[in-house]
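Appendix B. Chain record.
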Amino acid sequence: MNSLRSNAIAALLVGLCGPVVLPPPAAARDDVPAEVAARQNPVGELSDRDVRYFAKQFKTKCARCHGPDGSGSGEEAAEQAVPPANLTDPTHMSGRTDGQLFYQILMGGGERCAMPAYGPESAHGWTEEKVWRMVAFVRRFAQPTGD
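Structure tokens predicted for this chain:
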């Protein structure tokens, strides 16, 4: 009898409140190994040539979800189970280590999102150095422009 009453109360609450919709996870990956998350980017300042190159890479490979400005508002952003990160948000970006960003790009989104992997073992086949350079490039989105 108690289970019947519990089920009735649960049904009433769902009827009154509607289905419970949980927010998506805050990040595509939460499985970054601690030793990788702690890694510092070995790439120093990007050259002007690097900036131009990675701007093109970002535009062709990342902007459809992250948006051309990195704000997470790309044309395919709404289709993602986990919203693409807003790379222009200094709070979000300061909460992510270089190692975490490196792992995300290297390994892709895992089970939570459609972001492809770009590391050496992926279809894209980027070297680790190239991934680190992309980390340095995406960090630029959250930096003040000095305007």
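Further analysis of this model is presented in Appendix C.
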